[in-house]
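User: Show me sequence and structure for the first protein, then do the same for the second.

Assistant: Starting with the first protein.
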Amino acid sequence: MILYFHGFDATSPGNHEKMRQLQFVDNDVRLVSYSTLHPKHDMQYLLNEVSRQLKQSDDPNPLAIGVGLGAYWAERIGFLNQIKTVLVNPNLHPQDNMVGKIDRPEEYADIGSKCVSQFRDKNRGKGLCILSRHDEVLDSHASAELLSPYYEVVWDEEQRHKFASLAAHLSQIKAFKAK
């Protein structure tokens, strides 16, 4: 089972396309949708929703995959549920770059301060990070610097921030899910 966390643009047709592509990794791909606008409510909702989805599956190696803001959530919710995650162009600092886009971006800082201390160190090796060299929204080099001590980082030379096609990385995602 793959749990797919969409990015800030929840209604983008690209989400359906990425989920379709992920069916080459696992035919059970489930959308985990959330409001994107209310972080504290999203956190509680996502914890409950992922717990419910995991109970409905017998997959011994479930995987959470998120793009952009969805990667922020996939990493944290995956850690709290002890499942591996794939982070695609993760938005690691929404409290800084979501100002004016959501109601209370400062809630992300609050969530970060309440999360398990040094959670990435405790989650070492349980994440795969795919970054676009040409991300026009986020600083992918800063993301690589922050995440590379904990997760394998893979660079993509063609995709932009929304990462329209995962095709070049599907075999790597499949191998990561299986190991």
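Switching to the second protein now.
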Amino acid sequence: MAWSPIATELLLVSAVFCLVLWVARAWQPRVPKGLKSPPGPWGWPLLGNVLTLGKTPHLALTRLSQQYGDVLQIHIGSTPVLVLSGLDTIRQALVQQGDDFKGRPDLYSFTLVTDGQSMTFNPDSGPVWAARRRLAQNALKSFSIASDPASLCTCYLEEHVSKEAEALLGRLQQRMAEAGRFDPYNEVLFSVASVIGAMCFGKRFPQSSEEMLSLISSTNDFVETASSGNPVDFFPILRYLPNPSLQKFKAFNQKFFRFLQNIVQEHYQDFDESNIQDITGALLKHNEKGSRTSAGHIPHEKIVNIINDIFGAGFDTITTAISWSIMYLVTNPEIQRKIQEELDRVIGRARQPRLSDRLQLPYLEAFILELFRHTSFVPFTIPHSTTRDTILKGFYIPKERCVFVNQWQVNHDPKVWGDPSKFRPERFLTADGTAINKTLSEKVILFGMGKRRCIGEVMAKSEIFLFLAILLQRLEFSVPAGVKVDLTPIYGLTMKHPHCEHVQARPRFSTK
């Protein structure tokens, strides 16, 4: 008997269905008796849930968490990904079970950062990684609080920020005189790069070089590709197809690595152990001591890798925060006025703000906290992975499971914030308005937590505060009447606001 075309088609469809079902079952991990895998949405064969994520994965995964809970699982391509939401759940995983969740997944894009040797992006989470991270943290911390004996500033960070903030004030007033408006992002970018450059390399940092200007202007090529859920990490074929953004990412990493390599090499040639004035010098000194005992010695090329991580930790996040701040200030002039009234009352106009003024400026501090929360411009931490089989909230999580931590969801959780969509700095003040509500401030998550917490967090918060205090003491920011400011975030490792070329700044008082 001949098969009809319809019967043949049905047989083919059934065979394909059985194959897909077999593959799907093969993907499922073997779950120990009495435990269960995290719940999650159904995914398309080969594609998984990539279409659900769309261009705003933080929003899509927040919606899924409302349906499936704070521990859920999706697939990107054929790769299972654990998604964590909820402050308590994230704290449980990253702090209380920190050793289980401190790994990094072996993603393709990570191998392109610092020749695959980045502390931040490298899958290694063992003793060597821990020792280098500790060294980087200590170097960064010491130059955030240490002071130059020849300077009146309380620390190197304050000295560098004060100098660059003055230069930024001058540039903004020059732009106003020439064009009557400016794009704040590009101006802030240069100043922040100069601060971390000076902290890493002292006077050796080539602030006006064309190479440096070109590099810092192309940092978006990095943050767009290094973001959570980039298809190139989960669909290997995309690495071999024409991919302009991936090519830009590769080119940026190679150029940036060579740029830092050359500066570290120059630094090494005139290194003076008795006169340490920057982070590179501190790392070289540690190396000299370590090489005598063979304990704690770091190969010379690894210093470039550590500097690359420190530079990254002290650059993009700060630039993004300050430029977002200006956008929120021009769209909320009454909040800008309150900050300036506080600055006038506490500091006056005769001297520049200092880091030691922070406790006396709670409203400015509350504004920064609310900016971190409301923008959540680092929507996910850099992806984690599990270092061993573990159990979280009753769910079985196998070793080497890729983990996304949804910081945006925590910062917009109605159960925590009540009115999360409203921008309201006052929420972080105590009832009398004279101090920060510490308990609530600790519920904002932007720099991760636990063993992979951003090493630049303390420095970043200090630098953002000082830049804003100096700028707002002297200038009033605005946009012309009728100009619509677009605050729609552009998704990436750090989410930027669309460029706005219509910002204006006018002196609040004469400094002559």
